[in-house]
């Protein structure tokens, strides 16, 4: 799958989980996204910010810090996430994720 298709798929999954207001489905999606290794999740985070709570975003970033494959693309996308979210706890977790990739 190419990056554009993967990003679109992630957005569709999050849309489904948040649209139905189905708490178990929402939790499952957040857990799944936080266990991925791909940079596509970081890329999608900047556009999903309105659909997810800041705590959910922080949880996904935490997962990327642990599970993410350390690439320059991931670091670049995490920098975009840092700029996109002004909340202190999101930025702090993003900096930790970037640091763990270096």
Provide tags for this entry.
single chain, 102 residues, mainly alpha, 6 helices, globular
Mean pLDDT over the full residue set: 84
Number of helices: 6
How much of the sequence lies in strands comes to under 5%
Taking the sheet with the most strands, its summary is: none
Distance between the termini: 27 Å
Topology order in helix (H) and strand (E) letters: HHHHHH
Structural class: mainly alpha
Count of DSSP strands: 0
* Uncertain segments: none
Q: Determine the fraction of residues in helical runs and give it as a percent range.
A: over 70%
* Overall 3D form: globular
- Cα Rg: 12 Å
Summarize the structure.
The protein has 102 residues and is mainly alpha-helical.
How would you sum up this structure, described in words?
This protein has 102 residues and is mainly alpha-helical. Helices cover 78% and strands 0% of the residues. The protein is built from six helices and no strands. Helix 3 packs parallel to helix 5, helix 4 runs parallel beside helix 6 and helix 5 runs antiparallel to helix 6. The model has no long low-confidence stretch (mean pLDDT 84).
